[in-house]
Amino acid sequence: MANKRIEAAEAYVKALKSGEGSASERVSGQLAADVTLSTGQAEFKGHDAVLKRITGQWPNTPIYQYGGWADPVVEGEQVKVHADFPPMGGGVLAIDLAFGFNAQDQINRVEQKLTTAARPEPTDTIPDFVRGIVNTALPNGTPMCVAYTDESGQPVLSMRGSTTVFSDHQLGIWVRNPEGGMVKSLQANPRMSLLYRDSRNRTTLIFEGRGHIETGEETRNRLYTMIHEVEANHDPDRKGAALIIDITRLQGNTPRGGVRVERPA
């Protein structure tokens, strides 16, 4: 009996963490017709409904596949499985599964409990580790995407490799063309948004703020010396504009945990 139940739990885990069709076919016969999956937030009842939840690619599937899954353990009439996860931006730290069985040793109930990172407390400054993420975005192959609204009201997206953290509450971008659309648009609408995304470690950062052009030579020189050399070499005569963005909001997830920055608009 114990071996059959452990085999059923292992089949379920394989399907859950991979989403593979072959794994789902294997576990299908291990699920009772009246099986129930309880996640703590919702319940899925019946063979087909539960099988669907462990088939294919769901939001946490990319995290589950990197977990350290312990061997199933028999505890009384249940089989339990625990897994820990490496630091990733999804917020899942661990998962515990408890399997119940019917008289035919088919799984008739699954209790799933996720341990997630606590919601971060808001701060009014950009965390230092976020500086490292933003300032290495270009060499990391994940350059920042900037959104603004042009003079006609059309939203515009632009990749900006020179984006850097300029201060504890500001981002800086060296805009090569000081007469371009971005510079002109900010005079009418300074609101901007920026996105950083690294799918490899599920890091997402969304910045909101107000941009303005700084003309003082001290600020211009400082920003120019902060950007990556490859970006500076696109404008060796320093004819570009120094765009400074005052951050009003930052939210996201990183391997270090969640990030929340809130400042007066």
What attributes characterize this protein structure?
Nuclear Transport Factor 2, Chain: A, seven-stranded mixed sheet, 265 residues
Short description:
The protein contains eight helices and 15 strands. With 265 residues, the protein is α+β, with helices and mostly antiparallel strands.
Q: Which radius of gyration do the C-alpha atoms yield? A: 25 Å
* CATH homologous superfamily classification of the largest domain: Electron Transport, Fmn-binding Protein, Chain A
Beta strand %: 35-45%
The poorly predicted ranges are none
Describe the protein in words.
This protein has 265 residues and is α+β, with helices and mostly antiparallel strands. The protein has 2 domains: 2-116, Roll (Nuclear Transport Factor 2, Chain: A), CATH 3.10.450; 128-262, Pnp Oxidase, Chain A. Helices cover 25% and strands 40% of the residues. It is built from 8 helices and 15 strands. The chain has helices at 2-18, 21-28, 47-53, 61-64, 128-135, 181-188, 217-226, 229-232; strands spanning 31-38, 43-45, 68-69, 73-75, 78-84, 92-101, 107-116, 144-149, 155-160, 164-167, 170-175, 191-198, 203-214, 241-254, 257-262. Helix 1 runs antiparallel to helix 2. The longest helix is centred in the N-terminal third of the chain and has 17 residues, at 2-18.
